[in-house]
Amino acid sequence: MTPEIAIIGAGYVGMPHAQTFADAGRRVVLVDVQQSVVDGINRGESHIEDVPSADLKKLVDAGLVSATTDFAVVADCEAVVIAVPTPLSPQREPDLGYVEGASRAIAPHLKKGHVVVLESTTYPGTTREVVQPALESGSGLRAGVDFHLAFAPERVDPGRTDWTTKSTPKVVGGIDAESTKAAATLYRTALENVHEVSTAEAAELTKLLENIFRSVNIALVNELAQLCDRMDIDVWVVIEAAATKPFGFMRFEPGPGLGGHCIPLDPYYLAWKAREFDFNTRFVELAGEINNNMPYFCRSVISQALNHGAQKSLKGSKVLLVGVAYKADIGDVRESPAEKLLTLLRNAGADVSYHDPFVAEFDGLASVPLDPKAYDCVVIVTAHSTVDYDRLVDDAKLVVDLRNATGAKGTGSDKVFKL
Fold this sequence. Notes:
The protein has 419 residues and is of the alpha/beta class. It has helices at 14-23, 35-42, 53-61, 97-106, 126-139, 177-188, 200-231, 235-242, 266-274, 282-310, 337-347, 389-395, 407-411; strands at 5-8, 28-31, 65-68, 79-82, 115-118, 148-151, 170-174, 194-196, 318-322, 351-355, 361-362, 365-366, 377-380, 399-401, 416-418.
């Protein structure tokens, strides 16, 4: 059967979207440049945690999901969704290479009436200034006249079950009113709630605001954690107390840094674009500075804990990191602060290992069994719910808890040091 929707990029965004459209009876083809990924999908094998292989296989067997490396399949579809990565360059500037490449690959196969939607997180203006010219020059068609073009930011939160791709409201903004309407109609065939906005730029900025909101508030509590360390005040007690207020306060927690594709990267997209308008997003960039400093601060906490709790230096100490995924109970390590922390500890001369039940290999290491007694210091980086933290405290010689995972047990123990 001919597919109706082509999704460019079979990753953390593309796969859940394919499942959601297919569950609604839409025929979807995933286009990806990695042959191994394509072959796995066509066998019904999922490489994304949020899409179980059993569910994918049913959709593949029913002819609702397929995959290919050939962009020519776009010509037979009625809609194209671009869901490719938007990383930063080493200089922390936007890298739209994947978006530009996908747009150029799609262009020769565009036909009149196509609906093209960009979902990749980016700065305001990308859809109109980058994607549109690439599509038009490669196809000879005009956006808004021959085909529809819109932006609809992905809102995928890996591991989450209460809000899914289907149930999370979808923001849609086109380069013109008809494009907005066409894209919204596409998503309404599978999603529960679609929210239309006036322009593609408004939709692009909506996504950045969502993630900058979290970045700024996490930076606030990260800075507070550093101050509390100097003032000898338990930051977790303060947060717990503040969270009892039923209005005017939203709980955020400190940690070793930010992880995931969105929050560590997206603020820099806005900061970069703002300079085009002679505007400095000082608040946004300060939050990034504070959050980026947290692995360095946590290294100091670990060093001090070894010094005061075990009369040992960091150099030569055996350190076990518990949890390296960027958040609890998933295996996603994209932008995980554990990577920077691990590097800093190694550079300081520590002998570092890690245990993570969700991540088999990380930064050249393999996950080791959880044996706290074998290490001079155990550092809780990611608080997976599968770990028995009471037992960990009992068995370990020294614990540095960066997530308050040890709770009251850790607070009452003289061998637990908290962030």
